[in-house]
Amino acid sequence: MQNADLIIKNGTILTMDSKNSILENGFIAIRGDSISHMGTGDMPSIKAAKVIDAKGGLVLPGLVNGHTHAAMTLFRGLADDLPLMQWLENYIFPAERNMDAEFVYTGTLLALAEMILSGTTTFCDMYLFEEEVAKAAKKAGVRCLVGEVLYDFPSPNYGSAGKGLEYTESLIQKWQDDPIVSIAVEPHSLFTCSPELLMASNELALKHRVPLIIHVAETLNEVSEIKKKYAKTPIEHLHSLGLLGTHLIADHCVHLGQSDIKKMAKHGYRADPGADQAGRDGWLGNRWMRIQQ
Ligand SMILES: [Zn+2]
Q: Which of 106, 107, 114, 175 is the Cys-Cys partner for 74 at CB 3.0 to 4.6 Å?
């Protein structure tokens, strides 16, 4: 008789394998951090410390939340239902100036509890004091891709704007061998980051072979501001700075023109399949990403 830590049986298993196989009345045995057996019908003789009867239920891989600012759970009710820039500039940025590491750690733990309750086992975060986000994720056992937000103004975490890249590099080095925490370079947006900061961020991401993550074309206001400043759409601006590439995850991309979409497609981007399924305003929003080859 073989041993396992956990057996889940009698459920409908969505394997998400290359054939999208669905196993009715299936079983899964888990040992350590791996699935040791999976199938349908008669289960091999396995003894487990815990057995869950999933009759009538679906058993599926954990969900992935592609874009979070997890610690902002603690800002709920501060300012709701406002246009993005009004919300950011009048309420959120001022509140974040007084933030500290404990706030971020606690807010992230709350977000993680909610993620686990909804079946989310991986998230991609951009925020301040991101070391605390990594620690909270580690404590909760949730896989993550996280990075310190970078912009042209000072941060309550790393101080003057120039220090953000140093802080990010120290995070990359510290967590590089961790099995569940990965670090990305995360300039906030085209309207809060100078071309110099964007290019330096890109260089750092390429140097360490980590993803570069940024908000792009989230509002019409952003698109017109970038056009006025650089005579380019946000995607054209990214392209001209050399940022479109296999390592870039562009969040939102709500307001793209046909030529932007063509440009992204030319660089190998495709809409995240999750976004197609969830619709324009679904939980992935209109996140576009390059599918890693
Ligand atoms: Zn965001």
A: 107
What is the average per-residue pLDDT within 255-270? 87
Please give the model's pTM, rounded to 2 decimal places.
0.86
What's the gap in Å between 11 CA and the centre of ligand 1?
Answer: 36
Distance 57 CA to ligand 1 centre (A): 33
42 burial class (0-12, 13-18, 19+ CB within 10 angstroms)? exposed
Distance 88 CA to ligand 1 centre (A): 11
Q: How far is the CA of 269 from the centre of ligand 1 (A)?
A: 20
Instruction: With a cut of 60, say whether residue 102 has pLDDT above it.
Output: yes
Mapped onto helix, strand or coil, the DSSP state of residue 34 is strand
Sorting pLDDT into bands at 50, 70 and 90, what band is 22? Answer: very high
Domain 2-59 has CATH 2.30.40.10: yes
| Alpha carbon of 9 to ligand 1 centroid (Å) | 38
Of 163, 233, 143, the residue nearest 204 (C-alpha): 163
- Measured at the alpha carbon of residue 210, what is the angle toward residues 159 and 73, in degrees to the nearest 5? 55
Q: How far is the CA of 215 from the centre of ligand 1 (A)?
A: 6
Q: Report the separation in Å between the CA atom of 69 and the middle of ligand 1, taken as the mean of its atom positions.
A: 6
| CA 42 to ligand 1 center in whole angstroms | 47
Strands (E), 82-183: 120-127, 143-150, 181-183
The architecture CATH gives domain 63-290: Alpha-Beta Barrel (3.20)
